[in-house]
């Protein structure tokens, strides 16, 4: 079941929370033992993580985010799983903060942190930071590192960066962004690296467990999370247009007249067309991943995450709504044209 359908289980979950859960606790997935430098870091029980399966929208850019997931777990839970092997927990945060980011200027300013791309894709840059004190992290060539993956269409994904440190990285991205949004969207995810896995990967509630995590795996995960949080923004834009046309139709039903100006109608036409173009071209939802094409393990991760985030069904829903908008636009254009003809 995809994370975007989890809201349908809200009532069942509420009832479950009110009853004892001895059997459920025995079936919870195993998580990471916290590192000594970060005893309070972890993530909560999957039961409680159902509450935040939809990306949160922040109220402003002042750093006060509506956090989608709690990264803390009781120490006793970690200790009870010590005998099951070594785990590494890596928090992942996806943000959609603007309609465009100048990757070239950002790369020039942060050239010492840029990771050379592994494919011909030019819609993102990846930055690696290893000069921060870490308590958790990805082991890249023996060093704990933090990663920031920035996409041209306006998403930024922070890999292995705690909530209280995220704002400084987002400020760096904003310096090169245009069309900053009044409401920034945020979504949380997690990666668990577990060398003891008998399979390459397995998924859980808002996390994915991998036998081994490297830079290509980070690229694949960040790509899907960046697309998902941006798609959520465009779905919201189209929903607003659908609501506007619904109000227009209700008004026509009551009054039998139509008072929209041509300029307003043309603005709606432009907005509908640009939203569809942004989703298809900028987000690259249907572009082939060269990393996944060359390695079946990464293809497995990509397929799982696309299904988990329901990218195809959500795009289908958006496309259906845009067709409704397009139908209404054509109808209203005819109405305006007939009015103009009557005046002549």
TrEMBL record:
Residues 148-319 form the DUF155 domain. GO terms for cellular component: mitochondrion. Coiled coil: none annotated. Belongs to the RMD1/sif2 family. This is DUF155 domain-containing protein.
């Amino acid at each position: 079941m995809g994370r975007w359908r989890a809201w349908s289980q809200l009532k069942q979950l509420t009832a479950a929370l009110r009853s004892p859960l001895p059997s459920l606790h025995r079936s919870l997935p195993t998580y990471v033992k916290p590192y000594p430098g970060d005893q309070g870091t972890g993530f909560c029980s999957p039961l409680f993580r159902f509450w935040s399966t939809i990306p949160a929208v922040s109220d402003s850019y002042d750093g006060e985010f509506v956090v989608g997931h709690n990264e803390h777990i009781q120490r006793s839970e970690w200790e009870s799983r010590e005998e099951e092997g070594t785990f590494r927990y890596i928090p992942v945060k996806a943000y959609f903060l603007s309609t465009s980011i100048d990757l070239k200027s950002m790369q020039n300013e942060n050239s010492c942190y840029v990771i050379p791309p592994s494919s011909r894709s030019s819609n993102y840059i990846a930055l690696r930071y290893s000069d921060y004190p870490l308590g958790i992290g990805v082991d890249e060539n023996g060093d704990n590192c933090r990663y920031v993956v920035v996409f041209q269409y306006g998403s930024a994904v922070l890999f292995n960066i705690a909530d209280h440190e995220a704002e400084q990285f987002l400020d760096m991205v904003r310096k090169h962004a245009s069309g900053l949004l009044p409401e920034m969207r945020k979504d949380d995810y997690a990666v668990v690296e577990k060398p003891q896995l008998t399979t390459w990967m397995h998924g859980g509630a808002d996390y994915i467990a991998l036998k081994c995590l490297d830079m290509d795996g980070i690229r694949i995960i960040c790509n899907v999370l960046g697309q998902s949080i941006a798609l959520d923004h465009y779905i919201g834009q189209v929903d607003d247009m659908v609501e506007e046309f619904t109000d227009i139709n209700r008004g026509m039903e009551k009054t039998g007249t139509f008072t929209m100006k041509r300029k307003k109608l043309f603005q709606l036409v432009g907005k509908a067309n640009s939203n569809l173009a942004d989703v298809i071209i900028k987000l690259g939802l249907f572009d082939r991943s060269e990393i996944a094409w060359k390695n079946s393990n990464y293809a497995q991760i990509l397929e799982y995450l696309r299904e988990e985030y329901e990218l195809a069904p959500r795009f289908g829903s958006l496309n259906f709504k845009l067709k409704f908008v397009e139908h209404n636009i054509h109808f209203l254009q005819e109405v305006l044209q007939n009015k103009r003809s009557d005046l002549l």
